[in-house]
Amino acid sequence: MDREQLFGLLDEFKIETPSWGYADTGTRFGKFLQPAAASTVDEKLADAGIVHKYTGCCPTVAVHVLWDFSVGVDATQTAQIAEKNGVRIGSINPNLFQDQVYKFGSATSPDERARHHASRHVMDCINIARAVKSNLLSLWFADGTNYPGQDDIVSRKQRMHGALRQWHDAMPDDMTMLVEYKPFEPAFYHTDIADWGMALLLSQSAGPQAKVLVDTGHHYQAQNIEQIVVWLLGSGMLGGFHFNDRRYADDDLTLGSIDPYQVFRIFHEIAFFEWETGKRADIAYMVDQSHNLKGKIEAMIQTVMTAQELFAKAAIVDHKRLAVCQSKCELVDAENCLKDAFSTDVRPAIREWSRSNGLPEDALDAFRRSGYLERITAERSQKNMSSVSSYA
Ligand code: RM4
Ligand code: MN
Ligand code: MN
Questions:
Q1: CB within 6 Å of ligand 1 — which residues?
Q2: Which end of the chain has fewer CB atoms surrounding its CB within 10 Å, N or C?
Q3: Ligand that comes closest to the CA of residue 215
Q4: To the nearest whole number, what is the mean pLDDT of the chain?
Protein backbone atom coordinates (compact mmCIF):
# COMPACT_ATOMS: atom_id res chain seq x y z
CA MET A 1 0.00 0.00 0.00
CA ASP A 2 1.38 3.39 -0.88
CA ARG A 3 1.32 6.49 1.26
CA GLU A 4 -1.49 8.10 -0.74
CA GLN A 5 -3.76 5.12 -0.18
CA LEU A 6 -3.02 5.02 3.52
CA PHE A 7 -3.66 8.73 3.84
CA GLY A 8 -6.96 8.28 2.02
CA LEU A 9 -7.99 5.62 4.53
CA LEU A 10 -6.92 7.80 7.47
CA ASP A 11 -8.98 10.67 6.02
CA GLU A 12 -12.06 8.46 6.17
CA PHE A 13 -11.38 6.96 9.59
CA LYS A 14 -13.60 8.64 12.19
CA ILE A 15 -14.27 7.71 15.80
CA GLU A 16 -17.08 9.02 17.96
CA THR A 17 -16.21 9.90 21.55
CA PRO A 18 -18.76 9.49 24.36
CA SER A 19 -19.96 12.41 26.47
CA TRP A 20 -19.74 10.20 29.56
CA GLY A 21 -16.04 9.60 28.96
CA TYR A 22 -15.39 13.23 29.93
CA ALA A 23 -17.40 13.07 33.13
CA ASP A 24 -16.65 11.57 36.53
CA THR A 25 -17.80 7.98 36.37
CA GLY A 26 -16.79 5.25 38.72
CA THR A 27 -16.84 1.72 39.87
CA ARG A 28 -19.81 0.40 41.77
CA PHE A 29 -17.87 1.19 44.94
CA GLY A 30 -17.72 4.89 44.28
CA LYS A 31 -15.87 7.35 42.14
CA PHE A 32 -12.71 9.37 42.46
CA LEU A 33 -13.40 12.95 41.55
CA GLN A 34 -11.20 14.82 39.12
CA PRO A 35 -10.95 18.59 39.34
CA ALA A 36 -11.13 19.00 35.56
CA ALA A 37 -13.95 16.54 34.85
CA ALA A 38 -16.90 17.75 32.83
CA SER A 39 -20.22 17.77 34.62
CA THR A 40 -22.55 19.59 32.24
CA VAL A 41 -23.27 18.82 28.62
CA ASP A 42 -21.63 22.13 27.69
CA GLU A 43 -18.42 21.04 29.38
CA LYS A 44 -18.54 17.56 27.86
CA LEU A 45 -18.99 19.00 24.37
CA ALA A 46 -16.20 21.51 24.93
CA ASP A 47 -13.83 18.70 25.94
CA ALA A 48 -14.92 16.55 22.99
CA GLY A 49 -14.29 19.56 20.76
CA ILE A 50 -10.73 19.76 22.06
CA VAL A 51 -10.13 16.07 21.31
CA HIS A 52 -11.38 16.61 17.76
CA LYS A 53 -9.34 19.80 17.37
CA TYR A 54 -6.08 17.98 18.04
CA THR A 55 -6.80 14.55 16.53
CA GLY A 56 -8.94 15.61 13.56
CA CYS A 57 -10.91 12.37 13.56
CA CYS A 58 -13.58 12.70 16.27
CA PRO A 59 -16.23 14.95 14.72
CA THR A 60 -19.20 13.46 16.59
CA VAL A 61 -20.09 12.89 20.24
CA ALA A 62 -22.31 10.14 21.63
CA VAL A 63 -24.80 11.36 24.20
CA HIS A 64 -26.65 9.55 26.97
CA VAL A 65 -30.07 11.11 27.08
CA LEU A 66 -30.75 11.08 30.80
CA TRP A 67 -27.31 12.44 31.62
CA ASP A 68 -27.06 15.03 28.87
CA PHE A 69 -30.53 16.40 28.19
CA SER A 70 -32.66 18.05 30.86
CA VAL A 71 -36.41 18.07 30.67
CA GLY A 72 -37.64 21.29 29.15
CA VAL A 73 -34.35 22.11 27.43
CA ASP A 74 -34.63 22.38 23.67
CA ALA A 75 -32.41 19.68 22.12
CA THR A 76 -31.52 21.91 19.19
CA GLN A 77 -29.72 24.16 21.68
CA THR A 78 -27.47 21.23 22.56
CA ALA A 79 -26.77 20.70 18.87
CA GLN A 80 -25.79 24.36 18.64
CA ILE A 81 -23.42 24.03 21.60
CA ALA A 82 -21.82 21.08 19.85
CA GLU A 83 -21.45 23.11 16.68
CA LYS A 84 -19.88 25.98 18.58
CA ASN A 85 -17.27 23.49 19.79
CA GLY A 86 -16.59 22.15 16.31
CA VAL A 87 -18.41 18.82 16.75
CA ARG A 88 -21.85 17.30 16.11
CA ILE A 89 -24.13 15.12 18.20
CA GLY A 90 -23.69 11.50 17.18
CA SER A 91 -25.39 8.42 18.54
CA ILE A 92 -28.30 8.89 20.91
CA ASN A 93 -28.17 6.49 23.86
CA PRO A 94 -31.42 6.11 25.77
CA ASN A 95 -31.01 5.39 29.45
CA LEU A 96 -33.06 2.29 30.22
CA PHE A 97 -31.41 1.31 33.48
CA GLN A 98 -31.21 4.07 36.02
CA ASP A 99 -34.82 4.80 36.84
CA GLN A 100 -36.33 3.04 39.88
CA VAL A 101 -39.05 1.61 37.68
CA TYR A 102 -36.42 -0.54 35.90
CA LYS A 103 -35.62 -2.68 38.93
CA PHE A 104 -36.74 -5.82 37.09
CA GLY A 105 -35.90 -4.65 33.58
CA SER A 106 -37.11 -2.14 31.00
CA ALA A 107 -38.36 -3.55 27.68
CA THR A 108 -38.45 -7.05 29.16
CA SER A 109 -39.81 -6.26 32.59
CA PRO A 110 -42.88 -8.20 33.73
CA ASP A 111 -44.13 -4.84 35.04
CA GLU A 112 -46.15 -3.14 32.35
CA ARG A 113 -45.39 0.30 33.81
CA ALA A 114 -41.65 -0.24 33.27
CA ARG A 115 -42.19 -1.30 29.66
CA HIS A 116 -44.39 1.70 29.02
CA HIS A 117 -41.87 4.03 30.63
CA ALA A 118 -39.10 2.57 28.46
CA SER A 119 -41.14 3.01 25.29
CA ARG A 120 -41.96 6.59 26.10
CA HIS A 121 -38.31 7.33 26.79
CA VAL A 122 -37.20 5.76 23.50
CA MET A 123 -39.82 7.77 21.60
CA ASP A 124 -38.45 10.92 23.27
CA CYS A 125 -34.96 9.84 22.22
CA ILE A 126 -36.05 9.42 18.61
CA ASN A 127 -37.43 12.94 18.73
CA ILE A 128 -34.19 14.23 20.23
CA ALA A 129 -32.27 12.44 17.48
CA ARG A 130 -34.42 14.17 14.87
CA ALA A 131 -33.92 17.54 16.54
CA VAL A 132 -30.13 17.21 16.69
CA LYS A 133 -29.96 15.60 13.22
CA SER A 134 -28.50 12.36 14.45
CA ASN A 135 -29.26 9.13 12.62
CA LEU A 136 -28.06 6.62 15.22
CA LEU A 137 -30.14 5.21 18.04
CA SER A 138 -27.91 3.06 20.21
CA LEU A 139 -29.62 0.62 22.57
CA TRP A 140 -28.05 -1.09 25.53
CA PHE A 141 -30.19 -2.89 28.08
CA ALA A 142 -29.33 -3.75 31.66
CA ASP A 143 -32.29 -6.16 31.46
CA GLY A 144 -31.93 -9.64 32.86
CA THR A 145 -32.40 -11.58 36.07
CA ASN A 146 -30.21 -12.36 39.05
CA TYR A 147 -31.67 -15.70 40.09
CA PRO A 148 -32.74 -18.93 38.42
CA GLY A 149 -36.51 -18.98 38.19
CA GLN A 150 -36.83 -15.24 38.77
CA ASP A 151 -38.71 -14.70 35.50
CA ASP A 152 -39.65 -16.52 32.30
CA ILE A 153 -36.75 -16.09 29.87
CA VAL A 154 -38.96 -16.81 26.85
CA SER A 155 -41.58 -14.21 27.77
CA ARG A 156 -38.85 -11.67 28.31
CA LYS A 157 -37.43 -12.47 24.88
CA GLN A 158 -40.84 -11.95 23.29
CA ARG A 159 -41.24 -8.62 25.06
CA MET A 160 -37.85 -7.53 23.70
CA HIS A 161 -38.84 -8.56 20.17
CA GLY A 162 -42.06 -6.56 20.48
CA ALA A 163 -40.37 -3.45 21.84
CA LEU A 164 -37.62 -3.37 19.22
CA ARG A 165 -40.11 -3.81 16.37
CA GLN A 166 -42.26 -1.02 17.69
CA TRP A 167 -39.30 1.33 18.19
CA HIS A 168 -37.87 0.44 14.80
CA ASP A 169 -41.14 1.41 13.17
CA ALA A 170 -41.11 4.74 14.96
CA MET A 171 -37.71 5.69 13.52
CA PRO A 172 -37.37 7.88 10.43
CA ASP A 173 -36.15 6.05 7.32
CA ASP A 174 -32.58 7.27 7.55
CA MET A 175 -32.07 6.25 11.19
CA THR A 176 -30.17 3.14 12.24
CA MET A 177 -30.92 1.22 15.42
CA LEU A 178 -27.86 -0.34 17.04
CA VAL A 179 -28.50 -3.30 19.33
CA GLU A 180 -25.77 -3.93 21.90
CA TYR A 181 -25.25 -7.19 23.78
CA LYS A 182 -23.53 -8.00 27.04
CA PRO A 183 -23.18 -11.37 28.76
CA PHE A 184 -23.55 -10.20 32.36
CA GLU A 185 -23.69 -7.18 34.65
CA PRO A 186 -25.73 -5.72 36.15
CA ALA A 187 -27.82 -8.86 35.78
CA PHE A 188 -25.87 -11.86 37.04
CA TYR A 189 -27.95 -14.93 36.22
CA HIS A 190 -29.10 -14.12 32.70
CA THR A 191 -28.92 -11.06 30.47
CA ASP A 192 -31.78 -10.65 28.00
CA ILE A 193 -29.42 -9.84 25.10
CA ALA A 194 -26.40 -11.83 26.16
CA ASP A 195 -24.44 -12.30 22.95
CA TRP A 196 -24.12 -11.40 19.27
CA GLY A 197 -26.42 -14.19 18.15
CA MET A 198 -29.28 -12.91 20.26
CA ALA A 199 -28.58 -9.33 19.14
CA LEU A 200 -28.55 -10.51 15.53
CA LEU A 201 -31.88 -12.35 15.75
CA LEU A 202 -33.49 -9.42 17.51
CA SER A 203 -32.12 -6.94 14.96
CA GLN A 204 -33.24 -9.04 12.03
CA SER A 205 -36.75 -9.27 13.38
CA ALA A 206 -36.87 -5.58 14.32
CA GLY A 207 -36.45 -4.45 10.72
CA PRO A 208 -33.96 -3.48 8.02
CA GLN A 209 -32.61 -0.47 9.88
CA ALA A 210 -31.47 -2.48 12.92
CA LYS A 211 -27.85 -3.68 13.22
CA VAL A 212 -25.65 -5.23 15.88
CA LEU A 213 -23.28 -3.16 18.02
CA VAL A 214 -20.12 -4.90 19.23
CA ASP A 215 -18.74 -3.52 22.48
CA THR A 216 -15.27 -5.04 22.75
CA GLY A 217 -15.60 -5.32 26.54
CA HIS A 218 -18.81 -7.32 26.37
CA HIS A 219 -17.47 -10.82 25.78
CA TYR A 220 -16.35 -13.75 27.84
CA GLN A 221 -12.64 -14.24 28.26
CA ALA A 222 -10.92 -15.72 25.23
CA GLN A 223 -13.85 -15.15 22.88
CA ASN A 224 -12.71 -14.58 19.31
CA ILE A 225 -14.21 -11.13 18.67
CA GLU A 226 -12.77 -10.80 15.17
CA GLN A 227 -14.65 -13.91 14.10
CA ILE A 228 -17.91 -12.36 15.31
CA VAL A 229 -17.01 -9.21 13.39
CA VAL A 230 -16.48 -11.14 10.15
CA TRP A 231 -19.73 -13.07 10.50
CA LEU A 232 -21.70 -9.90 11.13
CA LEU A 233 -19.98 -8.06 8.28
CA GLY A 234 -20.71 -10.91 5.88
CA SER A 235 -24.41 -10.71 6.61
CA GLY A 236 -24.51 -6.91 6.46
CA MET A 237 -25.40 -6.74 10.14
CA LEU A 238 -22.39 -5.07 11.73
CA GLY A 239 -23.60 -1.64 12.79
CA GLY A 240 -20.77 -0.39 14.92
CA PHE A 241 -18.35 -0.74 17.78
CA HIS A 242 -17.99 0.45 21.31
CA PHE A 243 -14.24 0.42 21.71
CA ASN A 244 -12.52 -0.16 25.02
CA ASP A 245 -10.25 -2.80 26.51
CA ARG A 246 -10.69 -5.23 29.37
CA ARG A 247 -8.74 -7.66 31.48
CA TYR A 248 -11.44 -9.30 33.60
CA ALA A 249 -14.97 -8.02 33.00
CA ASP A 250 -16.49 -4.94 31.37
CA ASP A 251 -13.51 -2.95 32.58
CA ASP A 252 -13.90 0.02 30.19
CA LEU A 253 -10.12 0.49 30.05
CA THR A 254 -8.52 2.48 27.26
CA LEU A 255 -8.42 0.76 23.88
CA GLY A 256 -5.40 -1.43 23.29
CA SER A 257 -4.10 -0.99 26.82
CA ILE A 258 -4.31 -4.73 27.50
CA ASP A 259 -4.39 -6.42 24.11
CA PRO A 260 -3.52 -4.20 21.13
CA TYR A 261 -3.09 -7.26 18.89
CA GLN A 262 -6.77 -8.07 19.28
CA VAL A 263 -7.80 -4.60 18.14
CA PHE A 264 -5.40 -4.97 15.21
CA ARG A 265 -6.99 -8.32 14.30
CA ILE A 266 -10.45 -6.75 14.34
CA PHE A 267 -9.33 -3.93 12.03
CA HIS A 268 -7.53 -6.48 9.89
CA GLU A 269 -10.65 -8.57 9.35
CA ILE A 270 -12.57 -5.46 8.32
CA ALA A 271 -9.84 -4.37 5.91
CA PHE A 272 -9.54 -7.88 4.50
CA PHE A 273 -13.31 -8.07 4.02
CA GLU A 274 -13.20 -4.77 2.13
CA TRP A 275 -10.33 -5.99 -0.03
CA GLU A 276 -12.03 -9.29 -0.80
CA THR A 277 -15.43 -7.84 -1.60
CA GLY A 278 -14.36 -4.49 -3.07
CA LYS A 279 -17.00 -2.92 -0.83
CA ARG A 280 -16.63 -0.30 1.89
CA ALA A 281 -17.92 -1.45 5.26
CA ASP A 282 -20.23 1.14 6.77
CA ILE A 283 -19.36 0.92 10.46
CA ALA A 284 -19.89 3.41 13.30
CA TYR A 285 -16.69 3.40 15.34
CA MET A 286 -17.39 4.67 18.82
CA VAL A 287 -15.49 4.75 22.09
CA ASP A 288 -17.22 3.55 25.26
CA GLN A 289 -14.79 4.03 28.11
CA SER A 290 -14.81 5.25 31.65
CA HIS A 291 -11.60 6.90 32.77
CA ASN A 292 -11.50 6.52 36.52
CA LEU A 293 -7.82 7.08 37.11
CA LYS A 294 -6.39 8.70 33.99
CA GLY A 295 -7.05 12.31 33.07
CA LYS A 296 -10.16 12.15 30.93
CA ILE A 297 -9.16 14.19 27.90
CA GLU A 298 -5.66 12.69 27.88
CA ALA A 299 -7.12 9.17 28.05
CA MET A 300 -9.45 9.97 25.16
CA ILE A 301 -6.66 11.35 23.00
CA GLN A 302 -4.53 8.32 23.85
CA THR A 303 -7.42 6.06 22.79
CA VAL A 304 -7.92 7.84 19.50
CA MET A 305 -4.20 7.81 18.69
CA THR A 306 -4.07 4.09 19.53
CA ALA A 307 -7.08 3.40 17.30
CA GLN A 308 -5.51 5.29 14.38
CA GLU A 309 -2.28 3.40 14.84
CA LEU A 310 -3.87 -0.06 14.97
CA PHE A 311 -6.17 0.83 12.09
CA ALA A 312 -3.15 1.90 10.00
CA LYS A 313 -1.20 -1.24 10.89
CA ALA A 314 -4.15 -3.36 9.74
CA ALA A 315 -4.43 -1.32 6.54
CA ILE A 316 -0.88 -2.14 5.48
CA VAL A 317 -1.29 -5.93 5.67
CA ASP A 318 -0.33 -7.36 2.29
CA HIS A 319 -3.73 -8.79 1.35
CA LYS A 320 -2.69 -10.31 -1.94
CA ARG A 321 0.21 -12.15 -0.36
CA LEU A 322 -1.95 -13.26 2.54
CA ALA A 323 -4.55 -14.72 0.16
CA VAL A 324 -1.86 -16.64 -1.72
CA CYS A 325 -0.34 -17.99 1.51
CA GLN A 326 -3.78 -19.02 2.71
CA SER A 327 -4.58 -20.87 -0.49
CA LYS A 328 -1.28 -22.76 -0.29
CA CYS A 329 -1.72 -23.51 3.41
CA GLU A 330 1.53 -21.67 4.18
CA LEU A 331 0.76 -21.09 7.81
CA VAL A 332 3.95 -19.42 8.95
CA ASP A 333 4.06 -17.02 6.03
CA ALA A 334 0.35 -16.25 6.35
CA GLU A 335 0.70 -15.44 10.01
CA ASN A 336 3.77 -13.37 9.27
CA CYS A 337 1.72 -11.21 6.90
CA LEU A 338 -0.15 -10.09 10.01
CA LYS A 339 2.89 -9.94 12.26
CA ASP A 340 4.95 -7.91 9.79
CA ALA A 341 2.23 -5.29 9.58
CA PHE A 342 1.64 -5.31 13.33
CA SER A 343 5.30 -4.71 14.07
CA THR A 344 5.68 -1.91 11.53
CA ASP A 345 5.99 1.48 13.16
CA VAL A 346 3.24 3.46 11.42
CA ARG A 347 3.58 6.47 13.71
CA PRO A 348 5.84 8.46 11.34
CA ALA A 349 3.24 7.99 8.57
CA ILE A 350 0.41 9.11 10.85
CA ARG A 351 2.43 12.15 11.92
CA GLU A 352 2.91 13.03 8.27
CA TRP A 353 -0.80 12.57 7.62
CA SER A 354 -1.58 14.87 10.57
CA ARG A 355 0.83 17.51 9.31
CA SER A 356 -0.63 17.36 5.83
CA ASN A 357 -4.05 18.02 7.35
CA GLY A 358 -2.91 21.00 9.37
CA LEU A 359 -3.08 19.01 12.61
CA PRO A 360 -0.41 18.79 15.30
CA GLU A 361 1.90 15.81 14.80
CA ASP A 362 1.37 14.70 18.37
CA ALA A 363 -2.16 15.39 19.60
CA LEU A 364 -1.36 14.53 23.21
CA ASP A 365 1.60 16.84 23.33
CA ALA A 366 -0.37 19.63 21.65
CA PHE A 367 -3.16 19.23 24.20
CA ARG A 368 -0.69 19.31 27.09
CA ARG A 369 0.91 22.47 25.82
CA SER A 370 -2.39 24.21 25.01
CA GLY A 371 -3.16 25.34 28.57
CA TYR A 372 -6.73 23.96 28.24
CA LEU A 373 -6.38 21.54 31.14
CA GLU A 374 -5.09 24.25 33.48
CA ARG A 375 -7.97 26.50 32.46
CA ILE A 376 -10.75 23.95 33.03
CA THR A 377 -9.11 22.78 36.26
CA ALA A 378 -9.31 26.33 37.59
CA GLU A 379 -12.87 26.76 36.35
CA ARG A 380 -14.34 23.43 37.45
CA SER A 381 -12.44 22.21 40.48
CA GLN A 382 -14.42 23.90 43.20
CA LYS A 383 -17.72 22.56 41.92
CA ASN A 384 -16.33 19.10 41.21
CA MET A 385 -14.44 18.44 44.41
CA SER A 386 -17.40 19.27 46.63
CA SER A 387 -19.64 16.55 45.20
CA VAL A 388 -20.02 13.36 47.22
CA SER A 389 -19.69 9.77 46.15
CA SER A 390 -20.24 6.67 48.22
CA TYR A 391 -21.00 2.98 47.85
CA ALA A 392 -23.55 2.72 50.64
C1 RM4 B 1 -22.81 -0.39 29.48
C2 RM4 B 1 -22.78 -0.43 27.97
C3 RM4 B 1 -23.41 0.77 27.35
C4 RM4 B 1 -23.11 2.06 28.05
C5 RM4 B 1 -23.28 1.90 29.55
C6 RM4 B 1 -22.95 3.19 30.30
O7 RM4 B 1 -21.99 -1.36 30.03
O8 RM4 B 1 -21.46 -0.60 27.51
O9 RM4 B 1 -23.04 0.90 26.01
O10 RM4 B 1 -24.02 2.99 27.59
O11 RM4 B 1 -22.46 0.85 30.01
MN1 MN C 1 -21.09 -0.11 25.37
MN1 MN D 1 -20.08 -1.71 28.81
A1: 93, 140, 180, 182, 215, 242, 250, 288
A2: C
A3: 2
A4: 97
pLDDT number for residue 391: 72
Pairing of the two strands 210-215 and 176-180: parallel
How many angstroms separate the CA atoms of 105 and 118, rounded?
A: 9
**CA 223/CA 207 separation, integer angstroms:** 28
Cβ contacts of 279 within 8 Å, gap of 6 or more: 273
Residue 357 neighbours by CB distance under 10 Å: 12
24 Cα: distance to centroid of ligand 3 (angstroms): 16
Residues 6+ apart with CB under 8 A from 325: 331, 333, 334, 337
Whether the CB-CB separation of 245 and 258 falls below 8 Å is answered with: yes
3-class state of residue 335 by DSSP: helix
213 — pLDDT class (breaks 50, 70, 90)? very high
Residue 109: HSE in the Cβ half-sphere, 13 Å Cα cutoff: 22
The predicted pLDDT at position 28 comes to: 80
Name residues whose C-beta falls within 8 Å of residue 386's C-beta, 6 or more positions apart in sequence.
none
pLDDT exceeds cutoff 90 at 326: yes
Whether this model's pTM surpasses 0.90: yes
Instruction: State mean pLDDT over 180-199.
Output: 98
Does residue 131 have a pLDDT over 90?
A: yes
Closest CA to 121 of 156, 163, 153: 163
